[in-house]
Design goal:
Layout lengths: L26 E3 L11 E5 L10 H13 L8 E5 L3 H13 L2 E7 L4 H9 L3 E5 L11 H11 L3 E2 L8 H17 L6 E5 L4 H13 L4 E7 L34 E5 L1 H15 L5 H17 L6 E5 L13 H6 L12 H8 L9 E2 L4 H11 L3 E5 L14 E2 L3 E6 H10 L18 E3 L4 H9 L4 E6 L2 E7 H10 L4
Parallel strand pairs: 2-10, 3-4, 3-6, 4-5, 7-8, 7-10, 8-9, 11-12, 15-16
Antiparallel strand pairs: 1-2, 12-14, 13-17, 16-17
Helix pairs in contact: 1-2, 1-5, 5-6, 7-8
Length: about 475
């Protein structure tokens, strides 16, 4: 068999190691997901770095800087608080350099991320998510403690390490400028440590100060809700403190994005564009589309950075059951309102069947039997209980409590004379109140967590009582609609 000998001018395309494969990720036009928007939107696909995220870029830079300054010595151990991606970037570089790794992660991260870090040979410690940053249990505090306790340990600390934004100033920013031929007008990115957006924004604004930088932030983060911070499910973005790696003066506008909108956008990106992105990428895309609509200029160009792949979230945002359990995915093609459940069922049962505080247990039992129901709202004495159609007109403020079939049975079993007792002496608290326009998907968790029924109101009046059985029947009759 003949062999072909390469010419002397041919260069071998072999990288020295995996670190040399970092960067130069492609910029891809978004089409289907941006349909109807005049401003073009392009995505920087950082999940195509060898470790799967934008954080690959900073891992090796932080390690090499620590080596130069003598903070990290041969045989040392890297200790870092991370939601996963920075850990992978560090672990990948540590494998090449010969260091050990210990990563501290909040317990909200997907199981795939923990397994991935362990695959690189790292130790993983998980801590509670819903604690204050200065709590001894927070992943920041645990990482600090381990850094002190583990011999020859070094913490790169992506939240305060200047190599974080500097890396993006020297690599990511120039790549975007070159790939767009300097035509970029808007840059959109989620903000976590702030290193990516700060480094890229600094570089781009030096080239063109008119470029608009938009920060995407999850609901509950300090950046857009400093007075109302709370937990959220999107991973790797948002903070509960201000990192030293973030320069907020470089951000021209903010877009606050809900968990639901982030995850829905990520799933659309995958199904409509073939780009498997994580929830933080969905958050950034949602914000980018909003920025593109507002710009409404075919000559403008919005670039959005997608930090990582969706492979680390297959058990969460790409799992329909998880999405439904958390109220992010509807079982119906169109949102179904609670009022629709009431309307469908009202032909068999009067809109509201209620009992008054001054009526007896016997009266309540008769109503339950007559209407074949298992619970009743209790209204204050003097509330009208019937109209021309036999249904009650019950104002929200007249609701005093509730009774259930099994509760009444328990009272009678313990005291047969309870039949003549007033309902007010045996009633429980009122059922939860929801608006008729509320989506069924958001009511299901209330019913699943213990509430036997919910009261449905419209314009200040109770229009119905919805139980678990009512929702189950509605779902059974409307599958696939």
């Amino acid at each position: 068999m003949a062999t072909t000998t390469p010419s002397a001018a041919t260069e071998m395309q072999i990288r020295a190691n995996i670190i040399d494969a970092l960067g130069n990720t492609p910029l891809v036009r978004l089409n289907a997901i941006a349909k109807g928007i005049r401003t073009p939107v392009a995505a920087k696909l950082e999940m195509l770095n060898p470790g799967g995220s934008v954080k690959d870029r900073i891992g090796i830079r932080m390690i090499e800087e620590a080596e130069r300054k003598g903070w990290l010595k041969a045989g040392g151990t890297l200790v870092e608080p991370t939601s996963g991606n920075t850990g992978v970037g560090l672990a990948m570089a540590a494998a090449v350099k010969g260091y050990s790794c210990i990563f501290v992660m909040p317990d909200k991260v997907a199981a795939e991320k923990v397994a991935l870090l362990r695959a690189y040979g790292a130790q993983v410690v998980t801590t509670p998510t819903a604690v204050e940053r200065d709590s001894p249990e927070s992943y920041y505090s645990v990482a600090d403690r381990l850094t002190r306790e583990v011999p020859n340990a070094f913490q790169p600390n992506q939240y305060f390490n200047p190599m974080n934004p500097r890396t993006h100033y020297e690599t990511t920013g120039p790549e975007i400028w070159e790939q767009t031929g300097g035509q970029i007008t808007h840059f959109v990115a989620g903000v976590g440590t702030g290193g990516t957006i700060s480094g890229v924004a600094k570089y781009l604004k030096e080239r063109n100060p008119a470029i608009q930088v938009v920060g995407a932030d999850p609901e509950g983060s300090i950046y857009t809700q400093p007075d109302n911070m709370h937990t959220y499910k999107v991973e790797g973005v948002g903070e509960d403190f201000w990192p030293g790696t973030f320069d907020p003066t470089l951000v021209d506008a903010w877009v606050k994005v809900s968990d639901r909108d982030s995850f829905v956008a990520a799933r659309r990106l995958t199904r409509d564009e073939g780009i498997l992105s994580g929830g933080s990428g969905g958050l950034a895309v949602h914000a980018a589309l909003e920025a593109a609509r507002e710009a409404d200029d075919p000559e403008a160009l919005v670039v959005v950075l997608l930090p990582d792949s969706g492979r680390g979230y297959l058990s969460k945002i790409y799992n329909d059951d998880w999405m439904r359990e958390n109220g992010f995915l509807s079982r119906f093609s169109q949102p179904v309102r609670v009022g629709s459940v009431v309307a469908e069922r009202s032909a068999q049962t009067p809109t509201v069947v209620a009992v008054s505080c001054d009526q007896t247990v016997a009266d309540a039992i008769e109503l339950l039997r007559e209407h074949d129901i298992s619970q009743l709202p209790v209204v204050r004495t003097g509330t009208p209980l019937s109209g021309d159609d036999g249904a009650a007109r019950v104002e929200v403020q007249s609701v005093a409590g509730s009774v259930q079939e099994r509760g009444l049975l328990d009272h009678l079993f313990r005291n047969p004379d309870a039949l003549s007792a007033k309902i007010s002496t045996v009633m429980d608290g009122p059922f939860p109140l929801v608006d008729a326009n509320e989506e069924v998907e958001r009511v299901v968790p209330m019913l699943a967590s213990g509430a036997p029924a919910v009261l449905v109101q419209r314009d200040g009046a109770i229009i119905g009582v919805v139980t678990r059985a009512d929702v189950l029947e509605y779902v059974a009759h409307h599958r696939g609609t």
